[in-house]
Amino acid sequence: MTERVVVIYSGGMDSFTLLNQAIAQGKKVYALSFNYGQKHAKELHYAQKVCDDLALPHKIVDITAIHQLLLGSSLTDDIEIPEGHYEEDSMKSTVVPNRNMILLSLAIAYAVSIKAESVYYGAHGGDHAIYPDCRPEFIEKMAAVSKVANYEDIDIIAPFQNINKTEILNKGLAMGLDYSKTWTCYNGRERACGKCGACQERLEAFSENGLTDPITYEHTEKS
To answer: What's 150's domain CATH number?
Structure first.
């Protein structure tokens, strides 16, 4: 019997790679996306298009009602999104309070309800500097809680937790993935800004793989 897995799918590069990796491994994938009031909700349109093209079961869950509890982040509040690399202290303003614990909890509940065995999410090593809920310690503790929170034994799988975006992109390129189908920028404008931490890390990943990013940026005609 084919293993069922829930993939938390934001529409960005990392979860796009993870989604396709799970499919390539022969898993029966159920994609799960969340609208939590993020400024870059444009990523959800990309997620929907990919899942439609792949004919995958896909739920976009509206949890914007909790937006009033997630204030203080530049991704969800009336705070300007900082420019610069993730290593810079200013990027801490993009931390959304308890985001991954909330999203993982909901994904685990969904996994239980559809009799899936695991929840996959795309936390990676490049996130460790800024995001506590992407670090191995959090993943380990959350996986332990998952196993005692229900009668069902649901695993949390984060296969990218010890590699960076450059290595993730390399994996995706080896699978022949088209990254023009992803949205990374924290600003939800027509084109990516090229200046926020998410954009800079993405551009760096393509550069380190000797390639040009297939999407269009505001600061250049094509980058």
So the answer is: 3.40.50.620
